[in-house]
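Quick log. Single chain, no ligands specified.
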Amino acid sequence: MDEVEDLPERSRQVARALSAFGARGRVRALPASTRTAAEAADALGCEVGAIANSLVFMADGKPLLVMTSGRHRVDLALLAERLGRTRIRRAEPEEVRSATGQAIGGVAPLGHPVPVETVVDPALADYPRLWAAGGTPNTIFPLDYAELVRITGGSEIAVN
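-> predicted structure:
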């Protein structure tokens, strides 16, 4: 039986997207929640900074996915300045789901209904192995910084 069949549908979409990009990592389910970076780090036995947080914002009314280290907070004023945007705010849960097809706490860097503009924080390059959400709060997959930039088509911009 294919290991993907055991995953929730949202995670299967992420797994198919990873496969289409030729990514090495595979989505897997963990027994405990990985909704927060701290929970994911505990479940995986890694540093919280190696968790590639997927945060969705609204930038001048359009979705913006920010991939940042679990050890960082996003400076919204700085990010708006660097992107040349007027206003960036945290997306509401329904905006997150509409943009990504996924719920807060499980947003993957890919596998969305339509591409979402993405920023990748270079601080993630400090870690040889990263872990990103796999489409649900308890699925996750490994990758490295270069692969994260490649699969998201993201702009490398420091967020704090």
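The chain has a mean pLDDT of 93.
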